[in-house]
Specification:
The protein is α+β, with helices and mostly antiparallel strands and 149 residues long. The protein contains four helices and five strands. α2 crosses α3 and α3 packs across α4. The relative contact order is 0.10. This is Proteasome alpha-type subunits domain-containing protein. Keywords: Proteasome. Pfam families: Proteasome.
Length: 149
């Protein structure tokens, strides 16, 4: 059993306990728990819900518009490098965010000791520009060559 699984099981158990206990308010939120097992160094992603159930995922989202993002991830997820995974996450968020990269924050977790790094706004803007250029190129390719008259 990996370390992240055990921590997730503990948190889900606490959520479940509060759901069934009288006189206490249940937790009203879902959580995404991500990490690397300290022994195997294998990444894990779990989601818990207020009832105390939990499940493992390869990619997931929670909150408003999470169903749209989850559908996008199900269609487009592939095992890729770290940078391609970040790009996929931003592409998924752009499906539901109106103002491009302005309302997107991204943190990247790695196996290294420092572990978690928040992407700078400029890094996100560069990835958004790359995604938009790819979309424009794909649309131009669909239209085919323009005929001059």
């Amino acid at each position: 059993m990996d370390f992240i699984y055990l921590k997730t099981e503990n948190i889900a158990g606490l959520q479940q306990k509060y759901t069934q206990s009288g006189g206490v308010r249940p937790f009203g939120l879902s959580t995404l728990i991500v990490g690397f097992d300290p022994y195997s160094r294998v990444p894990s992603l779990y989601q818990t819900d207020p009832s105390g159930t939990f499940s493992a995922w390869k990619a997931n989202a929670t909150g408003r518009n999470s169903n749209s993002i989850r559908e996008f991830l199900e269609k487009n997820f592939k095992e890729t490098s770290g940078q391609e995974t970040v790009k996929l996450a931003i592409r998924a968020l752009l499906e539901v965010v109106e103002s491009g990269g302005k309302n997107i924050e991204v943190a990247v977790m790695t196996r290294e000791e420092s572990g978690l790094r928040q992407l700078e706004e400029g890094e996100i803007d560069a990835i958004v520009a790359e995604i938009e250029a790819e979309k424009a190129a794909a649309e131009a390719a669909k239209k085919g060559p323009q005929k001059e008259t």
